[in-house]
Amino acid sequence: MTIVPSQVPVLIAGGGPSGLAAAIELGRRGVEVCVVEPRTTLDPLRPRAKTTSVRTMEHLRRWGLADRLRSRAALPVAHAQDVVFCTGLFGHEITRFPEAFGLWTEPRDIAAEAGQQVAQPIVEELLREAAAALPSVTLLVGWRVDAVIDGQDGVRAELAGPDGRRRDVHAEYLLGCDGNAGVSRSAIGSHYAGSSGALPNLSITFRSRELDERPLCALGVHYWVIGAERGGLMGRLDLDGTWWAIVQGIDVQAEEADPVALVRTLAGAEIDVEVLATDPWSARMLLADRYRGERVFLVGDAAHLNPPWGGHGFNTCVGDAVNIGYKLAAVLQGWAPPSLLDSYERERRPVAVRTIAAAGSQEAFLAPSFAAAELDDAGPAGKVLRAELADALRGKDPEFHSLGLVLGYDYADSPVVVPDGRGRPEPELTRYRPSAHPGARLPHVWLPDGSSLYDLLGDWFTLLRLSARADPTPLVTAATAAGIPLRVVDLGHLPRLGAVCEADLVLVRPDQHVAWRGDVAADPAEVWTRVIGGGQDTT
């Protein structure tokens, strides 16, 4: 029988991607955590999110899980990297977007990892295993958090488990990773604001032998079908005949919602279809008005719901967990003040605002809005129409090429980074321009031995010495005096990196974002006071 702790430093309500990521961040640092997750099984027939972004893959690399995930992914990156727009799987290609979602097959300097197409249940299964393997993490599967009472001195949660068992758990902090239907948001009086997508959608998981046996119009990782009758998306879940489809603008109550007929319409042929699962849904663009109470923090879908266009939702959840995870560990270990936690919402809520806006803007470019009966015409008229549509579809590019959003978000206005008064790149959606300004993700480079710069960073703060003339001693001495864990990495032999970072010394946070940069720290103690949240008022 599972032993339910009566007291725990951190209780995590919800064991989806955000809850498990937070548990790994905390557990790797020795913080005792209890994760409460109602689902006893993960349904592989309901793949949900399928895009693990470049940035999330970098976090998985940091946890030692990137290669393990790729080995389990049923769709290797090498299989396909392009999103193809077509009139049907057996119809005409209209246009394509190469290397979508950061899917590249050769290493690039800008990131430690490429993206990966993999069904969310596979990611969650791996994260469950990784979290459960940590000695300080307890994973309660089949339990749920039914009620939460937040307070200045801690949190009381009521848990419901198998066979009607109930337990009260007291925690110093609670991370609300329980999604849109959980209790955490209401426990702190937080409310969603926003809207839902204009068109209903139906997801279908199916198998088809003929899609493996017959040549398709093109090779793609996703297919956007612009048809005369229906529009939607399709793609492989594996290389053994399992596919997913999303039919846009479909009324699931109507007779026309026959999933077999819908798949055949998208394919453009009377193929064999074995339906494995269906799910109706609507895109939602919702943001909580506050991310925290006294000791309760909202993480992931409990704080924001993103439409799926661009594949940012699950990845934004992981980013939240990484941010709050290291900060909560620092506070619980006693070398950072509780005020550090105030920076979580200040940093992560603007990221959600920008991400929801970027994904929501694609609602105007869904497949049904481009439908035209003549698109499949094999003659000159059809060819002209497809060329015109290809030009119009350029507006879809930010959905598939969004490294400016995925890698370029920063925390430059955060109270726990030290501004240096220099400019920073203007935020862009598609283009990522590396920058080491305070708050930015540390620019990535591959080192001469083929390893990643990120592989040298510690679990806590890392001070990069990028010039032989730079003296890290004052910052090291001040960190030691304050009990702050710090790793020093000497990279003075890499002048190219110093030129990119535009400083001799760069202080990197545990989440790989720059906390401070300079040639010398005028007041080292003040630098540390600020970056651990003990400086300016962060409320």
Automatic annotation (TrEMBL):
InterPro entries: FAD-bd, FAD/NAD-bd_sf, RIFMO-like. One of its GO terms (molecular function) is monooxygenase activity. Its cofactor is FAD. Keywords: FAD, Flavoprotein, Monooxygenase, Oxidoreductase. Pfam families: FAD_binding_3 (PF01494), Rng_hyd_C (PF21274). Residues 8-357 form the FAD-binding domain. It comes from the Bacteria. This is FAD-dependent monooxygenase.
